[in-house]
Amino acid sequence: MPLFVTVTPGTTVSASTTLDAATLNLLGTPSVDVTGTVDGGSITLGPQSVQLTSLYAQADQTIVGNGLGSSASPVALVASTDFAFTPTTIAIKAAAVTTAKIANSNVTYAKIQDVVDARLLGRSAGSTGVVQELTVGAGLTLSGGALTNQILRYTTSLKNIPVGNAASQMVEWLTSLTELPAVVSSTLPQFVRVVLRCNTNDAAFVVGNELDVTSVVMDQTWSSGNFTAAYPINVCTGLEAPSTTNIFLKVFFAKLRPGNQFLSGDTDSQIVYLNSSGSRVVLTRASWQVKAYLMYASTWA
């Protein structure tokens, strides 16, 4: 490696001169051009001694680095098509981040844009497209992470139908016994259906079948001499609210002999329905139970 030195006038340098720091300071301002190796010695470049402008010219649209997977000298790496270069910056190109480049479950909720409070995410534009913020409709409430409506649907427990000669023919559910939900804002529940549910196969019915209570009657026949008459009596239902915390749901069946008839030929009351051919069919009381479907709401429009 040749060493070029600018000698200060009046300074003598001979073959035996040792170019140590003190001597070099006497020589003025030396300049060193590193173009090869130093015979029998070495050169160390100090930190921050080489500026970027002094580096070897680099191909356009490349960056310097090492992608071999092990220690090696840096080389010019050609940037992928996902990156864009300017004279001073490198950036990810628009639309370069695709679904295939994002691992499953790697986008957290926190990375999604803010959502207006009390909104659901979905789409209702009538066509496929981006996700929209949907408002909560009338009768619905979105609070505390739960979407609820203002109507409570409730199904009562099953209760046996009283036997024909029982003193009371009333079936009753009570809120005070937690058999019904508590009154909501002092508003009475509304009936959806009161039904008889088959718990033992009976006639054409099997366990689980339900009959709306309005489709059956309590039928009692009065027969006296040559006169015969049938008295259909509806199964009655009702709600009673003696207080704002106690509701009584009641279902009434006809007693053994409605109207206190005791004439010769009278028959006990029976649960009767008409089948598809219009024929009168008697149900077995012990094979059926009664329950109700109710609805609660804070207000009833």
What features would you highlight for this structure?
301 residues, mainly beta, single chain, rod-shaped, five-stranded antiparallel β-sheet
Q: Could you state the order of secondary-structure elements as H and E? A: HEEEEEEEEEEEEEEEEEEEE
> What separation lies between the terminal Cα atoms?
100 Å
Largest sheet: 5 strands, antiparallel
Beta-strand percent range = 25-35%
Let me know the average pLDDT: 82
Percent in helix: under 10%
- Tell me the structural class: mainly beta
- Integer-rounded radius of gyration: 48 Å
Q: Indicate the low-confidence ranges by residue numbers.
A: none
Shape: rod-shaped
| Count of discrete alpha- or pi-helical segments spanning 4 or more residues | 1
Would you report the number of β strands? 20
Written account of the structure:
By secondary structure, the chain is mostly beta strands. The protein folds into 3 domains: 1-43, no CATH class; 113-149, no CATH class; 153-297, no CATH class. Helix content is 2%, strand content 33%. The chain is built from 1 helix and 20 strands. The protein has one helix spanning 21-26; strands at residues 62-65, 75-78, 83-85, 90-92, 119-122, 132-135, 140-143, 146-149, 151-155, 159-160, 170-174, 190-198, 210-212, 217-224, 227-234, 236-240, 248-252, 270-274, 280-283, 288-297. The strands form 7 sheets. Strands 9, 10, 12, 13 and 20 form a 5-stranded antiparallel beta sheet that branches. A hairpin with a 4-residue loop joins strand 3 and strand 4. It is rod-shaped, with a radius of gyration of 48 Å. The N and C termini lie far apart (100 Å). The mean pLDDT is 82.
